[in-house]
User: Fold this.
Amino acid sequence: ETPLRLCSFESMDLSLYPDAIDPATGENIRALMRDHLNYLQTYAREFDMQNENLLIYGTAGLGKTHAALAIAKTVLEKGFNVVYICAQNLFSQLERERFADSCPLLEAVLEADLLILDDLGTEYINPYMASCFYNILNTRILENRPTIYTTNIVDGKVFESRYTEKIASRLNGSCESVLFLGKDIRGLKSRM
Assistant:
């Protein structure tokens, strides 16, 4: 089974999110996650080229990638072109093809109806990578092509110092933020 086949909103178990108040936000974690998952499911079900960009963020193991793949599956079933790629794979491939005459991967990333760039923050960053990221971010904004970014980076200052103020500002200004809260679900599942 491919990860895309295994990931659906129905397979996301809300009981794995604590029925407790998050000290930082003052929100009930399970209720917040129920609302977020309902929002993401609606986002996918009603997807069109007018959808907002999303920044799905939170610490490791909370289901961000699972939710992004569930969106990808639903949007693909609607007949849209979706590119799902891990940031580390994308940027290392772009680095390898840096001096090539053409770059089919970059073209696919720029032209997809929906781009899901998973795990921002895992890739090696240098000025060339930052330039590529800005180009992808900016081009997709200007062409009104929805993009979903996931990251474990929860501190805006860390994000900004990693990607530059310009990229952080452009990303935050163009995305609806969706904060995932809870305890590491992968860890919980491995102990079940």
Observations:
- The mean pLDDT is 92.
- Residues 21 and 28 are 4 Å apart (CA to CA).
- The two ends are 22 Å apart (CA to CA).
- Residues 29-45 form the longest helix (17 residues).
